[in-house]
């Protein structure tokens, strides 16, 4: 069971990265880590927007929608990672936090994009 969840997580991140790339996002990092913060995907949207993305993959919506599983602690860690990324990349522009919810469907994996999801 844990192996299936791990595989769904990996497949979900790949589906999310492909989904964003098809929309024109440039994927800069996968699995970006800073201290205890892990950001699933870091992407650039155009020349002036850095997007930190949490991918939430769930086998079903039985226990709630994937996008509702981002905790306040996770949001705090994302903000810390964003500050560190701004310093390392010397990024003077805006940063946005998105969630991509991935669930299985008859056609494969369904991806829903929630822009500016922390506010």
TrEMBL record:
<dbReference type="InterPro" id="IPR011856">
    <property type="entry name" value="tRNA_endonuc-like_dom_sf"/>
</dbReference>
<dbReference type="InterPro" id="IPR003509">
    <property type="entry name" value="UPF0102_YraN-like"/>
</dbReference>
<dbReference type="InterPro" id="IPR011335">
    <property type="entry name" value="Restrct_endonuc-II-like"/>
</dbReference>
<dbReference type="Pfam" id="PF02021">
    <property type="entry name" value="UPF0102"/>
</dbReference>
<protein>
    <recommendedName>
        <fullName>UPF0102 protein MTX78_01895</fullName>
    </recommendedName>
</protein>
<comment type="similarity">
    <text>Belongs to the UPF0102 family.</text>
</comment>
């Amino acid at each position: 069971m844990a192996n299936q969840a791990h595989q769904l997580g990996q497949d979900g991140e790949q589906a999310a990265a492909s989904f964003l790339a098809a929309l024109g996002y440039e994927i800069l990092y996968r699995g970006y880590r800073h201290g205890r913060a892990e950001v699933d995907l870091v992407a650039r949207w155009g020349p002036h927007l850095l997007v930190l993305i949490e991918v939430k993959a769930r086998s079903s919506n039985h226990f709630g929608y994937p996008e509702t599983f981002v905790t306040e602690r996770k949001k705090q860690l994302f903000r810390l990672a964003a500050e560190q990324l701004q310093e390392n990349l010397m990024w003077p522009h805006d940063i946005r936090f998105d969630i991509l919810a991935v669930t299985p469907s008859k056609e494969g994996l369904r991806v829903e994009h929630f822009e500016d999801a922390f506010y």
